[in-house]
Design goal:
The chain is mostly helical. It has a single domain, classed as [2Fe-2S]-binding domain (DNA polymerase, domain 1), CATH 1.10.150. The protein is built from five helices and two strands; from the N terminus they run E-E-H-H-H-H-H. Bound molecules: FE2/S2 (inorganic) cluster. FE2/S2 (inorganic) cluster binds next to loops.
Length: 115
């Protein structure tokens, strides 16, 4: 965490905010070649697309912590991120596919580098 002063007044300890680095969907890959982005396309996940950025970023947070999640772990981690188009089964398939692709890339030394 980096302490920053978010108010124009003199920065005091009570006026400080602590911020975290934030990664957006565009931050996963400028080229759209992150394994999750590729899996989303392969599994034809999006319908209207409204929820998809949030779904992918929540999936990315799971895979950053757990490279080999079970289906139950995927369901539990994604709980609460709603999709009005009901794409949940395709989201789960895409996450499992991306996790497998990431493990394979790691095992073969072909891990993706940020673009
Ligand atoms: S794809 Fe339409 S809300 Fe999720």
């Amino acid at each position: 965490m980096v302490p920053v002063c978010a108010v124009p007044a003199p920065c005091t300890s009570t006026a400080r905010l602590f911020v975290h680095a934030i990664t957006t969907i565009e931050g996963l890959s400028a080229k759209g070649d992150h394994p999750l982005q590729k899996a989303w396309i392969a599994e034809q996940v999006p319908q209207c697309g409204y929820c998809q950025s949030g779904q992918i970023m929540q999936a990315a947070s799971l895979l950053a912590k757990n490279s080999n999640p079970t289906k139950d772990e995927v369901v539990a981690h994604m709980d609460g991120n709603l999709c009005r188009c009901m794409t949940y089964s395709r989201i789960q398939k895409a996450i499992m596919r991306a996790a497998a692709d990431m493990r394979t890339a790691s095992a073969t030394g072909n891990e993706r580098r940020p673009t």
